[in-house]
Amino acid sequence: MGKYNLNGVLALLGGLPAVTADYSDMFKWPIVTREHCEAVLKVINTGNMSGWDITMEFEKAYAENFERKYALACNNGTAAIHCGFFGMGIGNGDEVICPSLTYWASILQVYSLRSVPVFADIDPQTLCIDPNDIENCITKRTKAIVVVHYAGMPADMDSIMPVAKKHNLKVFEDCSHAHAALYKGMQVGTFGDAAGFSLMSGKSFAIGEGGVLTTDNKEIYERAILFGMYERHGMIENEQLKKYIGIPAGGYKYRMHQASSAFGLVQLKYYKQQFAEIDEAMNYFCDKIDGISGLKSHRPAKNSNMTKGGWYFPLAFYDSGQFDGLSVGRFVEAMNAEGVKIRSGCNRPLHLHPAFNDMDIYAAGQPTRTADMPNDIDTKHLTRSLPVSESINDKVIQLPWFKHFRKDVVDQYVQAFEKVTEGYKQLLHDDKRRAENGGYSSAFRI
Ligand SMILES: *Cc1c(COP(=O)(O)O)cnc(C)c1O
């Protein structure tokens, strides 16, 4: 037998798949040990689900690990980010800049604070906010910038922070894809005023449903407690805020289920070791992918002292020009048939979704986006086209996210990529150029 099963006839066209066995154990996540189970069982058996003693222990350990003074654990990442926005003082008529290429929970919460999302384009290499586009979004109402370290890639903080400083803007880092990723040797989430992390089951640091807000700023921290943790209002020391304690400002209750915090405490013991193995497997794999012309992994340059942390949602750039125009959708279809369960595209750009255009969520008789803005203002910056965000879904593929480093298995996946990229001509005659790549959630094609 040659290098490939059936001499390179693609599995999509009747050949044998390149990946010869079920390797789902390589992808199973999170990795649950007896220790995790016992920690969760203890919470349930003692009826301590709605307390916050274990949660506060988790917060303390999380803050230490992720190098911030304060951590506030919430029931999900969406809530942690919501608390963070309120904590930073985002309110009526404020504009908040965010990259269009992200999950909606990086920004959509601003609506409930009567604020306005303003989308910036992304950098085509990092897929994070393009620092050069931020100033195109700034008006006198701009209050903050949300930076998303997209798919584990650290955003260009050295270019972003000076713009924020120049215009006196707050910076919020959404680290939901990038737990423990390093930007020039420093952990992401330690640059801005505050940071939010999703810890839902699919993320790198997975504890079930959960999220964490981190900050060094006591006022942001206490305002976040005022907003989402009414039962912990007794912790607030700020005299201005103390007046309001007892009822959550805004009406949100975001307490973490203690089964999640107990699970998280165990996870804190293991994530570094798990991330190290993932990093080794993914870098080995990406070195091979980068040897294939037409494919290029999305990761920081070598020796840049930057890492992708746990490699959530690993991606590669797909250059259809190298494959006589073969569409990314058809390429991925062929990869799937070889036994590589990946998808084409990434997040669909938010600025094109009706929620950020004409949708009238609160029945105000006008689109929510502009409902709290002064009348007669220039809204050009809200309706710009963002060419990189608009075209990226046809140019990227997901890579398999290995949780273990087993060279023989990883090599089979490399061979599947080699087989399809070498045999791509077999696919050209029947390329329907499916236009629908990416989605608004990583789990569903919607
Ligand atoms: C997952 C995610 C969130 C929200 O987290 P949940 O825990 O699902 O509420 C926020 N931002 C980004 C970029 C995410 O991927």
Explained architecture:
The chain is α/β, with parallel strands linked by helices. It folds into 2 domains: 2-28 and 271-346 and 392-444, Aspartate Aminotransferase, domain 1; 34-265, Aspartate Aminotransferase, domain 2 (3-Layer(aba) Sandwich), CATH 3.40.640.10. Helix content is 30%, strand content 11%. It has helices spanning 34-45, 53-65, 77-87, 131-134, 157-166, 218-228, 239-242, 258-289, 328-337, 368-371, 387-391, 407-422, and strands at 70-74, 95-99, 116-120, 142-148, 170-174, 182-183, 186-187, 194-198, 211-215, 295-297, 315-318, 396-398. The strands form 3 sheets. Strands 1-9-8-5-4-2-3 form a 7-stranded mixed beta sheet, with helices on both faces. It has a 3-stranded antiparallel beta sheet with strand order 10-11-12. Strands 6-7 form a two-stranded antiparallel ribbon. The longest helix has 32 residues, at 258-289. The radius of gyration is 23 Å and the shape is globular. The protein binds pyridoxal-5'-phosphate (PLP).
